[in-house]
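User: quick one - fold this with (2S)-2-hydroxybutanedioic acid bound?
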Amino acid sequence: TFKSIAKFATAASILTASFNVFAEPVEIKFSHVVAENTPKGQMALKFKELIEQRLPGEYIVNVFPNSQLFGDNNELAALLLNDVQFVAPSLSKFERYTKKLQIFDLPFLFEDMDAVDRFQQSESGQKLLNAMNRKGIVGLGYLHNGMKQFSANDPLNLPKDANGKKFRIMASDVIAAQFDAVGAIPVKKPFSEVFTLLQTRAIDGQENTWSNTYSMKFYEVQSHITESNHGVLDYMVVTSNTFWKGLPADKRAVFKSSLDEAIALGNKIASEKGNEDKQAILDSNRSQLVTLTPEARQQWVNAMKPVWAKFEDQIGRDMIDAAQAANT
Ligand code: LMR
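Assistant: Sure. Structure tokens for the protein plus (2S)-2-hydroxybutanedioic acid:
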């Protein structure tokens, strides 16, 4: 009868709710814009592996690389809508949500990745993880990629070589100012469009890490890469306040420790792969390396460093001092 069917259905749903016997695992989405053979790509896959191993049957983590699900223009908005639960944009892409992270874009601020790491792990660096809390974004940790190099279809030896050339940049006003400072034309474009823009010569050059230049094959459509190490490209792994606070405390702890382990692996890959990818690019003979003399590099420093003063008020002098202190 209808009544007994209804009774059975109610009993079944109570059983499901209380014992979780028929429950499907909760799907967690991790979206990013790079390839899988990168520090971020490998970090995301490690995170998936650890969560599914430690919380079996409870969660599955689906990783979407290569801007497949969301790209630069919408991944943070999607996070706030809970359409994706984890993203790890580069530190240059949070400008709409905080001006504080602009510090990482200041040209020639960090001497090397060790200095970047020391600053990120310092009290000041850790404070920046919370810079977007009021906007509903929770910073869970930093992830390295590496130092940025310039590439173009002509050798860039001196700042004047960049004059009048169009460079693709990430959506960052500091990076725009950095290219303005040498008379170049910065064009903000999402990562997914860079290869085609370079290939069709709609733009002349770009700046990126060895890892991104290799994995996205930019070196096949750029004749020269200048080893400038002029800035850093790192990430913040973020989630939304809504998702994070909605997790039971014990699960949240597993998510955090798994993420920390995945980040440690990503950082190890970043430090090893930087050199490997550089070597692979050089071995390909598609792109020529431009090495700067100390005098030539100093010219780039002199041209670009005035950018700092323009953003000092937004970033805070104390932060810049703390970052510089990490160089020693
Ligand atoms: C870029 O847009 O060039 C990078 O931020 C891509 C990435 O996520 O490494």
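One thing worth noting: Residues 249-284 form the longest helix (36 residues).
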